[in-house]
């Protein structure tokens, strides 16, 4: 479909991060560039397998690339940072290594073979390109809101998948600027949130969250904004082990609010509504 | 965990280099990896110490400590290493040697809030901590 983007959801956008998917869908619809979900897709595996001999764990991401190829699309857009990272790393490995691509195609049943032509993008890249359109569409400026962007790891590292400067990203700052929000600097914005340790080492995640959120609070942030469902869960849920209570928004939620769109915010542990009402952003 | 059998059966340093595609001897023990690691306070030994033990053949000292399990593959060390060693891949190789010997780190029964967790956390954890 012309003017639309082929959207890869992944597992969590359909369950624990519905707020992210629904706000992103509404924003892109409003901007006239809707996200259209792929006809078929596979779980990416969440964490990239890094050993040289492991082709097996690249199969699911590349099957998804085959699905995009079959739909005649050259670009796949993810909302989830982890999906972005895994799909991109697996895809780049196939693009850079003919032997791996041949092995992959020998194994896969898909016909025709994967040609390595599909490109993986994160929604933030699209939003940055559309910064001016977003600014023009703002009806509910976020003037009084002090927001600390948080990037985490998966958009910025390793180098070959980075969508911005690895040590000094600016994408979310630029997008927030177009919404009228005040950007708060957080030197911890590229440090890991604790990732999957949330499953069986909560203590580690709690220390990471304390560190990241305390810097944001000390710099005067009213809230944190990010683009990853796992970072959102960790920074939101594990703040209960800290003295802080800072709402953690998905970037698309803030854009939707600034565009005057009606959105659900049901996945949040820390209430985001009171802050929005206090600042006159939501009635 | 039968570490003795595991370390007797393979040339550990060779296996780590083969799985990671990285050169252990490129490490100059500068400590940049440890300095930037957000998890270092939870590691029993520092990442560069893991390198040193592998190179010197003190494999049990690598496997009896938790460094490779605390590493969450955030790649901070990998992008900062002045010798361009992809340290996340070294940690992955060490994890994989253990996991491929059917010694899992995570157990489903021990996850006490499965219903609450986002799916990608569970998938990611079991990808990194089970074989």
What report would you give on this structure?
- The complex is a heterodimer of chains A (about 280) and B (about 130).
- By secondary structure, chain A is an alpha/beta fold.
- Chain A has helices at about 20-30, 60-70, 80-95, 100-105, 125-130, 130-135, 170-180, 200-220, 230-235, 250-260, 275-280, and strands at about 5-10, 35, 75-80, 120, 145-150, 180-185, 225, 250.
- Chain A has two domains: about 5-125, Glutathione S-transferase Yfyf (Class Pi), Chain A, domain 2 (Up-down Bundle), CATH 1.20.1050.140; about 130-280, Rossmann fold (3-Layer(aba) Sandwich).
- In chain A, the strands form two sheets. In chain A, strands 2-1-3-4 form a four-stranded parallel sheet. A four-stranded parallel sheet of chain A has the order 6-5-7-8, with helices on both faces.
- In chain A, α5 (about 125-130) packs across α7.
- The radius of gyration of chain B is 15 Å and the shape is globular.
- The model of chain B has no long low-confidence stretch (mean pLDDT about 95).
- Classes of the chains: A alpha/beta (about 280), B mainly alpha (about 130).
- Chains A and B meet through α8 and α9 of A and α2, α7, α8 and α9 of B.
């Amino acid at each position: 479909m012309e003017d639309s983007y082929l959207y890869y959801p992944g597992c969590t956008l359909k369950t624990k991060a519905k707020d992210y998917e629904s706000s992103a869908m509404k924003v892109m619809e409003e901007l006239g560039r809707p996200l259209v979900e792929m006809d078929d897709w596979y779980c990416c595996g969440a964490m990239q397998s890094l050993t040289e001999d492991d082709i097996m764990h690249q199969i699911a991401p590349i099957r998804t690339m085959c699905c995009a190829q079959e739909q005649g699309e050259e670009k796949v857009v993810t909302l989830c940072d982890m999906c972005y990272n895994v799909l991109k790393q697996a895809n780049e490995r196939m693009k850079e290594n003919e032997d791996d691509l041949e092995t992959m195609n020998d194994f896969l049943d898909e016909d025709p073979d994967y040609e390595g032509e599909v490109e993986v993008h994160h929604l933030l890249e699209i939003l940055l390109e559309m910064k001016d359109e977003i600014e023009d569409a703002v009806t509910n400026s976020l003037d009084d809101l002090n927001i600390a962007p948080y990037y985490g790891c998966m958009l910025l590292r390793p180098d070959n998948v980075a969508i911005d400067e690895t040590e000094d990203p600016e994408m979310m700052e630029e997008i927030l600027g177009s919404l009228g929000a005040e950007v708060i600097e957080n030197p911890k914005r590229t440090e890991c949130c604790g990732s999957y340790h949330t499953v069986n080492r909560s203590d580690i995640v709690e220390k990471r969250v304390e560190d990241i959120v305390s810097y944001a609070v000390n710099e005067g942030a009213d809230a944190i904004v990010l683009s990853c469902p796992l970072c959102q869960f960790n920074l939101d849920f594990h703040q209960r082990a800290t003295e802080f209570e800072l709402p953690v928004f998905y970037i698309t939620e803030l854009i939707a609010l600034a565009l005057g769109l009606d959105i659900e915010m049901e996945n949040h542990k820390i209430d985001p509504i009171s802050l929005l009402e206090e600042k006159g952003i939501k009635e | 965990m039968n570490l003795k059998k595991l370390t007797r059966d393979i040339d550990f340093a060779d296996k780590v280099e083969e799985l990671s595609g990285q050169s252990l001897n490129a490490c100059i023990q500068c400590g940049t990896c440890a300095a930037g690691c957000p998890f270092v306070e939870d590691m029993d030994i520092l990442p560069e110490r893991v390198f040193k033990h592998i190179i010197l053949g003190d494999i049990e000292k690598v496997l009896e400590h938790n460094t490779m399990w605390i590493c969450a593959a955030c790649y901070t060390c990998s992008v900062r290493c002045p010798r361009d060693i992809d340290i996340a891949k070294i940690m992955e190789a060490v994890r994989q040697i253990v996991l491929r010997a059917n010694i899992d780190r995570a157990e489903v029964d021990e996850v006490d809030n499965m219903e609450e967790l986002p799916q990608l956390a569970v998938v990611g954890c079991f990808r990194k901590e089970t074989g």
